[in-house]
Write a sequence for this structure.
């Protein structure tokens, strides 16, 4: 059943769907949202899913985003009298799922809030009034009657430190909030048609879950101790019913691949302080793009022994500036003391400001690392205003720079290990020279490419191999637009030299370059021989590259008599 949208917000709608015995999904459909927490773009909107279990006792699992306040509360009231709610189960306290907790508790003052210890502590500061609470940990159960026994699973860092899963033993529904979800808005409540949701499912994993791959594995090991799972009730996107094994299996495979990386970086942040969690996620995503594993840890709630163990085995350390005063300051400063005691001199470091209004000065932290003879993985990230798209892109690129620094020696060793005859033979494959340019919002990027080939006539299409650690990769997701600029033989050296140089994180790739804006919004290089405006249709993953298939929408040749520049290599194990 689809409920009518509010007149002033025609693209915010509600949907109610029975998903199992006594279990109803209340889905808030946000059709037009094109950014989520700034970090990454959305092509297909998103949903915020809440669930109602009505047995002898009534439980509400999560709420919705505050932008849906009236729509959500009206829909909830149409299902039940909110005063009859016995339990409000909080999967985690990120605002898009807990934004209406205070409103629900006003309607259901006798409800008991159920959550992890950290979640309950956060909600006490959010609600600012007493409420009944029940702290749960892994293996605890809650009996709603008539066979609906809810078993809780600890799932910290997926993707907040207070995350829990809830499993209904009767219906075999697992409520997972962010895990196994995706930003995909559709009136289809389930994953029946896998093909259209696959790109969003993978992109969501890469942005939010890949930096926490070890935590994903730990949570999934706990999931295996539950009974059969028939349905995964996610917090975003379609509910998983038709492809549960396939999609959870992908999480398992992807996470094991990430976790088995030889090099690891520890990323420390402070939950609920400034923009620490979001900035750290962007840095972590940049690190994982370059094939380096990440383990994220909240300094506010970290156990000293865990901090020491993590720091001692990681090749790199990234820290967000903690607050300088208040209750959180003491906890984080104690954790920092443990961290510095575990450092060894072969590590790289990075520090970023959190823009929390009370940050510890960044320079003394940087000096401390340098005094311990650690090498900088990236320049200190100073945040002087509310983080923007460009800020998060800077953070992602900084993370990639650190990862590339840490793996440089290993990369050179692998290149030398390739059989010389094979290496030389592979190097005889030649290709044209192109500059790929793209822009999304306020972020733009460019890349020199030679692995380009026409791939289809109807529709006109081409493929480009893009290394996973390239900055432009984030702007070449399914649905994104870009321009393929064809370079001219005899007139390409200046452009090749410019786009081959190593740009610092956040740098403008087009400063000093003759360019204009194409119809699709991407930069068009004035010195190119020809250009093609393209839209990404699909992506195929290889070990270290994405093969991006795109349809060609428009194009033009500026010099019909000129030839395309050709790139001849001598070896095949690097560019």
């Amino acid at each position: 059943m689809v409920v009518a949208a509010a007149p002033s917000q025609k693209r915010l709608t509600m949907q109610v769907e029975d998903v199992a015995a006594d279990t109803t999904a209340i889905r808030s459909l946000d059709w037009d949202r094109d950014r989520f927490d700034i970090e990454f773009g959305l092509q297909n909107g998103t949903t915020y899913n809440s669930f109602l279990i009505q047995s002898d006792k009534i439980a509400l699992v999560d709420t919705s985003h505050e932008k849906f306040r009236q729509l959500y509360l009206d829909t909830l009231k149409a299902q039940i009298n909110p005063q009859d709610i016995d339990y409000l189960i909080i999967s985690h306290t990120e605002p898009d799922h807990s934004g209406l907790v205070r409103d629900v508790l006003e309607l259901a003052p006798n409800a008991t809030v159920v959550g992890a210890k950290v979640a309950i502590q956060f909600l006490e500061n959010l609600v600012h009034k007493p409420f009944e609470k029940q702290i749960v940990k892994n293996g605890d159960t809650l009996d709603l009657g008539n066979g609906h026994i809810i078993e809780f699973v600890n799932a910290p860092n997926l993707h907040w430190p207070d995350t829990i899963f809830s499993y209904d033993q009767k219906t075999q529904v697992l409520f997972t909030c962010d895990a196994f979800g995706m930003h995909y808005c559709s009136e289809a409540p389930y994953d029946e048609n896998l093909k259209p949701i696959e790109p969003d499912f993978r992109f969501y994993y890469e942005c939010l879950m890949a930096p926490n791959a070890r935590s994903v594995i730990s949570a999934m090991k706990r999931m295996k101790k539950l009974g059969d799972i028939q349905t995964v009730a996610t917090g975003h996107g379609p509910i998983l019913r038709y492809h549960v094994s396939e999609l959870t299996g992908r999480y398992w495979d992807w996470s094991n691949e990430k976790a088995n990386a030889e090099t690891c970086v520890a990323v420390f942040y402070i939950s609920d302080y400034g923009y620490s969690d979001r900035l750290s996620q962007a840095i972590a995503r940049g690190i994982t793009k370059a094939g380096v594993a990440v383990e994220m840890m909240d300094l506010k709630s970290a156990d000293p022994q865990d901090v020491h163990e993590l720091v001692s085995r990681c090749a790199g350390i990234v820290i967000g500036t903690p607050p300088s005063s208040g209750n959180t300051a003491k906890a984080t400063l104690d954790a920092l003391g443990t961290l510095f005691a575990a450092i060894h001199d072969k590590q790289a470091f990075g520090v970023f400001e959190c823009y929390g209004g009370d940050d510890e000065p960044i320079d003394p932290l940087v000096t401390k690392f340098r005094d311990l003879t650690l090498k900088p993985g990236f320049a200190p990230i100073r945040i002087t205003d509310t983080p923007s798209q460009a800020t998060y892109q800077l953070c992602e690129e900084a993370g990639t720079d650190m990862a590339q620094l840490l793996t440089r020696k290993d990369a050179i060793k692998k290149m030398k290990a390739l059989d010389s005859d094979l290496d030389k033979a592979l190097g005889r494959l030649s290709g044209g020279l192109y500059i790929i340019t793209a822009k999304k919002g306020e972020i733009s990027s460019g890349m020199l490419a030679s692995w380009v080939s026409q791939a289809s006539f109807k529709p006109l299409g081409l493929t480009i191999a893009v290394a996973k650690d390239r900055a432009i990769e984030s702007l070449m997701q399914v649905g994104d637009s870009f321009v393929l600029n064809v370079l001219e033989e005899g007139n390409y050296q200046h452009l090749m030299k410019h786009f081959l140089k190593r740009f610092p994180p956040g740098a403008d790739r087009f400063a000093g370059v003759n360019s204009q804006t194409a119809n699709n919004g991407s930069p068009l290089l004035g010195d190119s021989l020809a250009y093609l405006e393209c839209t990404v249709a699909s992506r195929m993953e290889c070990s270290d590259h994405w093969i991006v298939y795109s349809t060609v929408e428009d194009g033009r040749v500026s010099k019909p008599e000129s030839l395309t520049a050709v790139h001849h290599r001598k070896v095949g194990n690097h560019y």
Q: What stands out?
A: Residues 12 and 30 are 5 Å apart (CA to CA).
